[in-house]
Structure formats: structure tokens, C-alpha cells
UniProtKB/TrEMBL annotation:
<dbReference type="InterPro" id="IPR001365">
    <property type="entry name" value="A_deaminase_dom"/>
</dbReference>
<keyword id="KW-0546">Nucleotide metabolism</keyword>
<feature type="binding site">
    <location>
        <position position="195"/>
    </location>
    <ligand>
        <name>substrate</name>
    </ligand>
</feature>
<dbReference type="InterPro" id="IPR006330">
    <property type="entry name" value="Ado/ade_deaminase"/>
</dbReference>
<feature type="binding site">
    <location>
        <position position="32"/>
    </location>
    <ligand>
        <name>substrate</name>
    </ligand>
</feature>
<feature type="site" description="Important for catalytic activity">
    <location>
        <position position="246"/>
    </location>
</feature>
<feature type="active site" description="Proton donor">
    <location>
        <position position="225"/>
    </location>
</feature>
<feature type="binding site">
    <location>
        <position position="32"/>
    </location>
    <ligand>
        <name>Zn(2+)</name>
    </ligand>
</feature>
<dbReference type="InterPro" id="IPR028893">
    <property type="entry name" value="A_deaminase"/>
</dbReference>
<dbReference type="Pfam" id="PF00962">
    <property type="entry name" value="A_deaminase"/>
</dbReference>
<dbReference type="GO" id="GO:0016787">
    <property type="term" value="F:hydrolase activity"/>
</dbReference>
<feature type="binding site">
    <location>
        <position position="222"/>
    </location>
    <ligand>
        <name>Zn(2+)</name>
    </ligand>
</feature>
<feature type="domain" description="Adenosine deaminase">
    <location>
        <begin position="25"/>
        <end position="368"/>
    </location>
</feature>
<protein>
    <recommendedName>
        <fullName>Adenosine deaminase</fullName>
        <ecNumber>3.5.4.4</ecNumber>
    </recommendedName>
</protein>
<keyword id="KW-0479">Metal-binding</keyword>
<comment type="similarity">
    <text>Belongs to the metallo-dependent hydrolases superfamily. Adenosine and AMP deaminases family. Adenosine deaminase subfamily.</text>
</comment>
<feature type="binding site">
    <location>
        <position position="314"/>
    </location>
    <ligand>
        <name>Zn(2+)</name>
    </ligand>
</feature>
């Protein structure tokens, strides 16, 4: 165990206004394409293909559909949370639908002040109407390119990359890993596995991770969201993950004494010492029961202890959230200031699956000047 001071970092004096948070440049590493659709888009695409939605008249009342997604996801169960994706995935089975969803994703993120994003999805879930895996990736890339172009035409700037996800309860991880490598110079930044953690350890996909390592390719692993320390340990020490998707349960290896002293277990110390990024998603973590509330979310402690903390949305539709909303919630819960938001933003950009010089350019030319303009 590693003992250290538990002196919290003082709340920053530069507490931002909601408008400042909205205008602040943001970096998003953990966002699911099929979890971020506009309710109106779900309703329109469902009507086109005859897919039955749980809210009658959703085309005329997309707000009601949005509320259904949020309320259904507010269950405290990861498994129930994942059930909401049945309806979004169902309407994302054609090139046109995939491109539209991807384009709107970019536009929505840019409107929220996001300047760099890695958006993930599972290609294997979008082949029900005969698309090949390659077709799926191409359609999503077309949408991203269109979105980036539209943002640029409006005077904005955003860089978006794909993360290709394999479902941990299926057996296509090697196929998806090979797809990620084939597309890595054409818009794909890396690989991921996702889905229910219990009973489906990341080591089931060890061949895919070993292949990615041989190909010098980046990957993150959903771990430490619902299943705790064993999944984190396997993701890092067996599979070699570059980042932890969520990783919130690393706090289970952090002991805080009554006197405020802190002792890190060996795994927590390793994660901190080696600067393994944590893709924390506060609103989603509360929904799935990984944290009791935003005020009790481990992100406050992990930030004070200087873990490589990043802030993310996970599923903007299901959590009815945005990067601005996530950041504002942390400002309110922990007294974070602009300096804290700048710190987690630079953390995220440092941790992006993007070449070093491109990361540095965004930090120096976009993030730092953006926060300087806000007085930080």
C-alpha cells in the first residue's frame, strides 16, 4: 500500500458561469454513437422503417421519446441501461441512417464546444440489413466528414475519430480489431470492447488485444464500471489497455482514513503512477449504480489524488447530457473552477489516440487559447 497526504486541492476561485462552461473547449474520449442520437432522429428513422417505438406518436412529440430514454436508463442497473439501445441500433442499419446519425453527432458536439472527440460504436450491431462491416465504417466516416465540413463552413473547428467496439459477449473481437487496423489511417483511432462486464472478462478477447499490440494500435477497454477491480486488473495487466473505459471502481483500491490519510492499493498506485487515463462518465455512472450521486462520485477524490482523470458523456441520449452539463455538475458538486476544467481537458487531449504532434497542436492552438479567452 502507498500512503500519502489526503489534503484536498482547494476549490478554485475561478468558478465559471454556465455560459463560460458552454464556450470552453472540450475533449471527449468516451461517447457512444448509438447512445447519442437526437430523439427526433430516432422517431423519424423508426417511422421510415416501421420500427415500433415505446412512445406512441414520437414523431410529433420527440421530447416525450427523449424522456422515455432517460427514465428507462435511470434504473441503477447496467443491464437495464443497455436495453435502451435496442431502439437506437434498430434505426441505424442503412448507410444513409448511419451517415445521418454520425453527421448530427459531430454537429451536436461542436455546438457544445467539443473540439476533439473519439466516438465509439460496434460495427457488428449494424449489419442486420446486409451491410458489411466495412460498409458500416465507411458510412459512419462519411457522416463524420460531412459534419466536420459543416462545422468548418460555419467557422468552427472540430476533429472527430472513430473507435471500433467489439461486444464482449460475442466472438467477433478479432474481426473488429482487424477492421480497426485496416481503417486506422482513414478515420479510425482505435479499438474498444463493451457490454455487460459480469461473466465476460476482457481476457476472453486476449487474441485481439495481442494482435493490436503487434500492430502498434491503440485500444481502450470498458472496465471497472459494474464489475470492479478484477476487470480493471485484467484490462491492464493481462490485456494491456491504453485507457480504462470508466475505471471508476479503481476507488475500491483507495482507502481513506478517518484522519483524512489516504492509502493506495497496488493496483490503484500502478494506475496513477503509469498515468493510465480514466474515461469517467459521471451522469452515466450514477444511472448504472457505479456511483450513488454526482456529489459522491469518486471523480472528486481521484482528481485530488492526481489520477489521469477525464470527463465524458458516455450516452448523451440516455443520460440527457452533454459535456457542458457534465462539467457544470462537477462545478456544482466539487467547486471546480476553470483551472480544473482546463486540467481535465488537457488530460483528455494528452490521452487521445491521435499522433503526438496533432495532440500538441490542439492543446497549444485551441485549448489553451480557448481557456485564456475565458480568463483562465
Amino acid at each position: 500500500m502507498t500512503a500519502l497526504s489526503a489534503e484536498p486541492i482547494e476549490a478554485a476561485p475561478d468558478v465559471p458561469t454556465p455560459d463560460q462552461v458552454r464556450r470552453a473547449p472540450k475533449v471527449l474520449l468516451h461517447d457512444h454513437l448509438d447512445g447519442g442520437l437526437r430523439p427526433a432522429t430516432v422517431a423519424e428513422l423508426a417511422a421510415e422503417i416501421g420500427h415500433e417505438l415505446p412512445v406512441p406518436g414520437a414523431v410529433a412529440d420527440p421530447d416525450a421519446l427523449g424522456r422515455w430514454f432517460r427514465e428507462s436508463a435511470d434504473s441503477g442497473s447496467l443491464e437495464r441501461y443497455l436495453e435502451t439501445f435496442v431502439h437506437t441500433v434498430a434505426v441505424m442499419q442503412t448507410p444513409e441512417a448511419l451517415a445521418r446519425v454520425a453527421r448530427e453527432c459531430v454537429e451536436d458536439l461542436a455546438t457544445d464546444g467539443v473540439v476533439y472527440a473519439e466516438v465509439r460504436y460496434a460495427p457488428e450491431q449494424h449489419v442486420e440489413q446486409g451491410l458489411s462491416l466495412d460498409d458500416v465504417v465507411a458510412a459512419v466516416q462519411q457522416g463524420f466528414d460531412e459534419g466536420v465540413g459543416a462545422v468548418a463552413a460555419a467557422g468552427g473547428r472540430i476533429v472527430v475519430r472513430q473507435l471500433l467496439t467489439a461486444m464482449r459477449h460475442q466472438a467477433r473481437s478479432m474481426e473488429i480489431a482487424e477492421l480497426a487496423v485496416a481503417w486506422r489511417d482513414r478515420g479510425v483511432a482505435g479499438f474498444d470492447i463493451a457490454g455487460a462486464e459480469a461473466g465476460f472478462p476482457p481476457t476472453r478477447h486476449l487474441d485481439a488485444f495481442e494482435y493490436l499490440q503487434r500492430e502498434s494500435s491503440h485500444f481502450t477497454i470498458h472496465a471497472g464500471e459494474a464489475f470492479g477491480l478484477p476487470s480493471i486488473w485484467e484490462a491492464i495487466q493481462w490485456c494491456g489497455a491504453d485507457r480504462l473505459g470508466h475505471g471508476v471502481r479503481i476507488v475500491d483500491d483507495v482507502e481513506v482514513g478517518e484522519d483524512g490519510s489516504v492509502r493506495l492499493g497496488r493496483l490503484a498506485a500502478y494506475v496513477r503512477d503509469t498515468r493510465i487515463p480514466l474515461e469517467l462518465c459521471p451522469a452515466s455512472n450514477v444511472q448504472t449504480g457505479a456511483a450513488a450521486s454526482i456529489a459522491e462520485h469518486p471523480i472528486g477524490l481521484l482528481r485530488d489524488l492526481r489520477f489521469r482523470v477525464t470527463v465524458n458523456t458516455d450516452n448523451r441520449l440516455m443520460s440527457d447530457t452533454s459535456m457542458s452539463a457534465e462539467m457544470l455538475a462537477l462545478v456544482e458538486a466539487f467547486g471546480w473552477g476553470l483551472t480544473d476544467l482546463r486540467w481535465v481537458t488537457i488530460n483528455a487531449m494528452k490521452s487521445a489516440f491521435l499522433p503526438f504532434d496533432e495532440r500538441l497542436e490542439i492543446i497549444d492552438e485551441v485549448i489553451k487559447p480557448g481557456y485564456a479567452a475565458l480568463g483562465c
